Amino acid sequence: MIEHDDNSYEKLKKTLVEKFEDHFGTRPFFLVAAPARVNLIGEHIDYCDGFVLPLAINRHVMIAATPNGSERANLLSLMLPNQPATVMLDEPPKVSQPSWANVIRGVFDGFRNKDFWPLPGFDAVIHSNVPLGAGLSSSAALEVAAATMVESLLGIEINPKNKALLCQTAEHKFAGVPCGIMDQFASVFGKKDHMILIDCRSEEAQAIPFADDSVEIIIADTRVKHALSDGSYANRRKHTEIALSILGKDSWRDVTMEDLLSAEPNMNEQVFRRARHVVTEIDRTQRAAMALARGKTETVGQLMADSHKSLRDDFEVSCKELDIMVEAAWDIGEAGGVLGSRMTGGGFGGSTVTLARKDNAEEIMQKMAATYQAQTGIEPSIFATTAVDGAHSLGL
Ligand code: GLA
Questions:
Q1: Ligand 1: which of 45, 52, 137, 143 to mutate, most ligand atoms within 8 Å of CB?
Q2: Can you give the residue ranges of the Galactokinase N-terminal domain (predicted)?
Q3: CA distance to 14, 38, 54, 228, per residue, from 345 (Å)
Q4: Measured from the CA of 171, which atom of ligand 1 is nearest?
Q5: Which residue segment(s) compose the domain that 147 sits in?
Q6: Are residues 14 and 161 located together in one domain of the fold?
Q7: Is 183 a catalytic residue?
């Protein structure tokens, strides 16, 4: 299915406010939004001090809320309306049921650790148009939206970097995924018409103009769901830590290909391949950021293809469906308007990202959908997106 994002932000806002009024019988006081992200390149290296190049996309988690004068947060998610959650705000939050609210409990806990406690009670309705399990970081968008909500409620703004880190900690402690900083940083620091180059060693985010407005960003969701908390993600992270300790270095940024080749005899073959992905992907990401900023799309296409192959063969986080979707784009090729394509996000299912000539985008999406469906029997969900601003509060 090809989806068109026309007005999706406004529609999301309208439904959210209406449902809030239906449910709580009053207009919300606060309304906040946090975007999802797509990563152009730099995969599985945010937890290796690498560079990553995501952008915030026009898919959001929105929260409407109003103070209720109690010690509780009453949370209703329109995606899971049968599972409302109540969180006590005068005792330390703990992982509990319903599980969808755990990362929000984690965000509250982050504010508690910053001495903003107890939080004032509030009623909230949450809505989202971020597909779940599609590798577009719906979880980070929920965390960042929740943190932005709490900021509104308290009438404060915490330092954006600390806000992103607070959300990352919520993911670690309350969802059990030892993620890097990319998703939360992209959702906080996103900027309209810009990609965000994140230096994961210094934890600095730099907005770089997406130079070429004749280029469309296409996201193709394979509709095969991944589960990062099943241990595969943690396992890959572990392999990179083992490799770094064999290399005897403090940071991947100090590791050269020569270092890696001389340490190869001391590593098992699998750990060596994981390490090779990290070293080559850090290099590719820096080169891609430069090439993209200068509109050198040919170089970018090659780097994206190399990134995908490295994730498929060395890091082993791709899957049959992702490979089929990426190959469908590669087969259309430059002549058909495809500039580059690769898997995006954590992997094991989820989405691919494709850069395409705007004039050919519609046709490319149709072709990718048809090829993928013919080969897998699964109907994908494909849409074009744009780079949007990071988390913010909205007027009502
Ligand atoms: C997930 C994690 C990120 C990052 C990507 C892979 O999205 O949350 O921190 O590691 O996988 O690049």
A1: 137
A2: 18-67
A3: 29, 7, 9, 10
A4: 8
A5: 2-209+388-393
A6: yes
A7: yes
At 181, the pLDDT band (50, 70, 90 cuts) reads very high
Identify the pLDDT of residue 227.
61
CATH of residue 172's domain is: 3.30.230.10
Q: How far is the CA of 177 from the centre of ligand 1 (A)?
A: 9
> Given pLDDT bands bounded at 50, 70 and 90, which one contains residue 297?
confident
Claim to verify: residue 42 and residue 91 sit in the same structural domain: yes
Which residue of the set 46, 183, 221, 314 is catalytic? Answer: 183
Cis ω for the linkage preceding 265 (within 30 of 0): no
Helix (H, G, I), strand (E, B) or coil at 341: strand
* Separation of CA 44 and ligand 1 centre (Å): 6
Strand 2-3 vs strand 381-385: parallel, antiparallel, or unpaired? Answer: parallel
What is the CATH number for 378? 3.30.70.890
Torsion angle of the four alpha carbons 176, 177, 183, 185, in this order, in degrees rounded to the nearest 10: 60
Question: Model's pTM, two decimal places?
Answer: 0.97
What is the domain count for the chain? 2
Residues 204 and 223 in one domain: no
Of 156, 158, 147, 137, nearest to 63 by C-alpha is 147
200 and 225 housed in the same domain: no
Atom of ligand 1 nearest to the CA of 52: 12
